Every structure is written in structure tokens, then in C-alpha cells.
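Run folding on both entries below.
>entry_1
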Amino acid sequence: MRVIVTGSTGLIGRALCSSLITSGHEVVRLVRDETRGTLGTSVGTTVKWNPIAGDASGIPGGALDGVDAVVHLAGAGVGDKRWNDNYKRIIRDSRVLSTKTLADAISSSDHKPRVFVSGSAIGFYGDTGDIAVDETAQHGQGFLTDVVVAWEQSADAARSAGVRVVHPRTGLVMSKHGGAWQRMLPLFKAGLGGTLGNGKQWWSWISLRDEVRALEHLITSDLHGPVNLVSPAPATNRDVTKAMAKALHRPALMPAPAFALKAVLGEFSVEVLGSQRVLPTALQRSGFQWLDSTLPQALTTLLAE
């Protein structure tokens, strides 16, 4: 297959491109800066694009020729900076406008791909408390929920053009090379780990290798619409903390009170302290098999990376 990938310098994008290339597929990486970020010696083709164009003008003519699948993973990190009005706009635009750019290019192309895997997130559900939700649930409330709703809707042009569009609603990806776990590991290794807030909030997680395998599954399966990319065993933050401490043979005695998180993180603390108990119903029904279906398995995989 010939696969276009955006966000190829990010945690998930790097791993996906490497996996696709190893499997013998041709990867075309859409990048904003052709000099930024490499993936080793087998990086595939790079094509410069303008993700915030908001229409087909952001992608060079002919870039979609011969392409079987487009996997869109680009977007500003929601936890990279303290939120203010400007950064919240960047978070939204980097997702919504870039998706519109791709969807418009796909819909107007004479050589449409078979599938558009357009990134999404479990932020769609908002704070679900102790209630378990799957793809049939309605969206929640909050800034990130609003972003995800608009993000998924931005792919409508490709949908209307008859292309299979699937939205991987990704949970917390477990890897020591990026994301939340990259930040937590040094603290736990130093014996400074602990619960966040009261620790009762649910975390819906997935190992990096299962995330990549699930994305490849979405490319080749007949799934469409939202698909939750999480493990079948969500856990509370307290249980995650205990499992981390056990895996690293360290104590976890330093809880981070809610008021401290609010002071440090500002509005983003609402997302850290929120609870999302998300189930991967669509993925399970499609026959997908996890390699890391439990926390101990996932932590073993993470520490071996």
C-alpha cells in the first residue's frame, strides 16, 4: 500500500511510519518543514503541506495519486503548554483546519484513497465519572469535547465523496518516549510518584504498540466512524499509580492535590482530574486482539521499549 501519514514526527506517527515501512508499505509523510524530524534511514517520501490552509490548496497537486490510505495524526499537544486563549486556538485550528485541508483535497481528487483515518480522541466523551461509555455515547461538555466534535465533523467532505472515514478516538498512550508516561516515569523511578487528585478518576489507556496495530487495523478493516482506541481494561488513577510503583519497585507516596494541579496547570487541570471510563466496543467486535490488554502487560512492554 501507499499510505500518507501526517504527524509523522510525533510519538504515534513515528511508530506507525516505522511499522508500515517495516511491513513493506510505501509511506508518504506530509510535513510542514522538510528539514524537521527524521525517522532513520527509511523515512519514505516527504511532501510539504500547509495544514492550516483549510482547503485543498494546502496540499500539492498530485500528492494523492496512487495513495491507498491517508492517516491524519497531526495536532498541537494539548498538554504541551499552559492554556490561554491563543494556545486553545492553536489546539483547535491544528486539528480542525488540517482535517478540512485533507478532506477537501480528498474529495476533489481524481484519485481518491480507499480510507481516511482521521485522528480523534476520547476527549469527545468529556468527564464520564464512573459510567462506562463506548462509541454509542453522546459527546460530553468542555473545551476539548468541543474541539473533538469539530475535528471529526471536519472530515465530512471526504465522507460525502464516498471515502470510508474512520475516527480513532485515542486514549492515553503508554510509552516512555512521549505523552503522560514519559513525564511520570522519572518521578516514579525517584520514588516521587503518587495519585493525581483523589485518584478515583478513570484512565482509559493503550500501549503504543497496540495503538499502532489498531491504526493499521483501521486501514485494512471495513470499520468506519468513531472507534475507541483504548485497552479493554480502563483503570483508576489510583490503580495505575499502584501498578507503576509495583513495576518499578518504588514507593508511591507523593499525591498531587487537586488545588496544586489547578495552580500549576490552570484550565488543563480539568482534563487531568477528569474521569473517562471508555470501552473499545467497535474494536472488539471487529476481531482486534490486544497484545497488552492489562496494566501489568502494558507496563512490562513500556519498560522494555
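>entry_2
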Amino acid sequence: MGRAHEVRAASMAKTAAAKTKVYSRYGKEIYMAAKSGVPDPSMNVALKRVIEKAKANQVPADVIKRNIEKAKGGNAEAYIENRYEGFGPSGSTILVETLSDNSNRTLAEVRSCFNKSHCNLGQSGSVSFNYESNGILSFEGTEDETLDILMMADVDVKDIEEEDGNVTVYVDPKDLYNAKDALEASKGEMKFDVLEISMLPNDYVTLDGDDKMLFERLLRLLDDVDDVQHVYHNVEGM
């Protein structure tokens, strides 16, 4: 199976607990985008884009509305973005992006996850150099039609895969919404299974036995940290 399948599976196979995590993650991003500008997506492009990503991840309209209304109020809550980089067993690496109102607390919680999994936090840049930022779109369609549309729109397509009637396109991050707009201009309003900017590793590793168990533990522990927004790693099959 191609990485397109992995991306779609990771996006769609969510438990109820995972959905709650997704809602919380996008809730913070919507609040921050609304707070940093006009709390109206028709006048705030950043807010409009976050809402589009949230909808692609099946975030309910009431969650979106609630966080916009929160930004309109007198709430002075502020979040700081941080990225932590680390090493797992047998050449595995991981990036953890957080959004927190208390960076010291978040660092302590992330470090605890690594320690309990016998993994190690690294210095800034020690892992991220081997990852590449990609805009990813996944939707029903065909490779040939999609390529034609995006080439006409001068979108920088890095890779494209078609599987079981679904297309996954990898583009330069700055072209993510250019690609979305071009596709919808040609095909009408679309449902995207994935619409996001992600960090993809240049190389993958496979873990088994105790190594796999420890890495799975790390992922579970990080998922329980409220401030963790995104986790990227280079382990296949997880």
C-alpha cells in the first residue's frame, strides 16, 4: 500500500476519544486565528483556512462557532507554539508540535512521555532536518484529471497517488489552498478527506518486538497530553 492509504487511514480511522482530541486541537487553532484578526472568516483569511481544515477533519459546526465566539469575548487566553524533537528505538524519530498557555508545563509533560517510553528528547534541529513540509489533499477523483487541473493552475505538485478511486496529492505548503481553490473552481464544492500541512520523513523504519511496543507507548502517552497538536514520525505502519 502507498503512503496515500496511510494518510487517509490516519485521517479517517478515529475513535471517539481521538475525535475529541481533534476537536480540541482545531478549537485552539480557530480561537488563535480569530483572536489575531477579525473573528469573521469572510474578512480573516487565516481563520477561513483553519475552518476549512477543521471541516475536512469532520469538526462539528458548533465547535467552530464556539471558539469564534470565545475569541470575540474578553478572554485573554494566549497560546505559544513549540516543537520538540526526539529519538526512539532502532533509528525511529519523532516531532511533537504543541500549542500551550504554559510552555514549562508542556515541556515537562512531553519529557515525561519520552522518559516513560525509554526514548530521548533531542536538540532543536536534531530530527527536523530529515523531514519535509508538505501540503496534502486527499479526495475522490482520478490522477490524470487532478494533474491537468493543478498544472493549469501552476501548482507545484511534489507527488500524486491514486488508490481505490481516491487521489492524494502532495504539494508545496504554500500551494495547499491554491490547489484546493483550483480543484473546486473546476469540479465544484468538494469533500476533502485530508486537507493539511504535514511533516513527512525522508526515510522510514520498521519496528517490531519491544521496540515497537515502546514506540506505541510513546504515541499513546503523547496523545493524552492536551497541549500536543501534531505528532510526526518515521515509523511505518503506525
